[in-house]
């Protein structure tokens, strides 16, 4: 998460609704002009409210100061009150030598050696926020007249802050909605069966999130949650909700849970342990970031495996990254993406890719689940090339109850009739 600059040292977590504010690229370009003109390390634009300065856009390396888009600085701890005292911009070439800032805790806490800032107004001539620059070291070349350049740039930002305000209000609204959803126990959970293609028995159910009364699909909800810093929390809430169904699940049926690498590294192991569920679940890793290079994620994946959890990877076959993760992770379960499964009965290329994935899975000791089986021809092809398990509307739609999800679809797996006796 982004961090709040403390007057005395380490930053504390910020309300996730304030993270990752997006702006017109022109804003960042203007900040770049300012930073280079003043020869400083970071330029910023922030929005002021009654409590703090919310830092929205940067140019340079804000991490060098322990900052990120969405960080806040409390009013009483900040350097900017001196800028608010009058309309003129402020330029401080050496924060340690200037009596206004020498004792400011934030100077020590963030390591600020030089500072320049000016107020930004909106089109109603109301103060929107602050634009400025930070330097790690003193900048003796700075002169009071450099403040006029900061002020000039602040005037150019007048129109841009209207869009920033609109984005901020939208993100704040979405953050409140998602926070309320998490507080209410997370999204609704439905269960889609995973079927053995050998005999039609139910081998598992995948827990899927549903968000009622919304035009967004589930993936869209999790994307928005990630944008306001609540993606992991929302995903953990969905997993927690799904795990409450475990007592009603037949012992022979596994529960498949979707988790991004960040969720795996943010307490998933402890959550599964609290439900006594490690050996009853499959953790399906979503998102195709290069998590195999993240030691924390890989450590927790191995810890899950040591407790009996099986690991699955999804969307296999749709890109180089997915294949690389398959080789690096060697999951127990490989999920063949719908884009490959769909029409593979009539498309030799899709069929060839599916067969290759089956071969790779066999070599690493894994099993394959074909997603998106929607026709008997696709089902037949999946069986012919050696895919052991399937998912899709033909085999079973997502159901609100485990009982419905664990009821095999009749008629699909009838045994072949015995040949007629010879006459």
From TrEMBL:
GO MF entries: cyclic-guanylate-specific phosphodiesterase activity
Alphabetized Gene3D superfamilies for the sequence: 3.30.450.40, EAL domain
Tree of life domain: Bacteria
A Pfam family hit: EAL
EAL domain ranges (all copies): 171-412
Cited InterPro entries: Cyclic-di-GMP_PDE-like (IPR050706), EAL_dom (IPR001633), EAL_sf (IPR035919), GAF (IPR003018), GAF-like_dom_sf (IPR029016)
Region (Disordered) residue spans: 1-20
Protein name: EAL domain, c-di-GMP-specific phosphodiesterase class I (Or its enzymatically inactive variant)
The organism of origin for this protein: Parafrankia irregularis
Lineage per the UniProt record: Bacteria, Bacillati, Actinomycetota, Actinomycetes, Frankiales
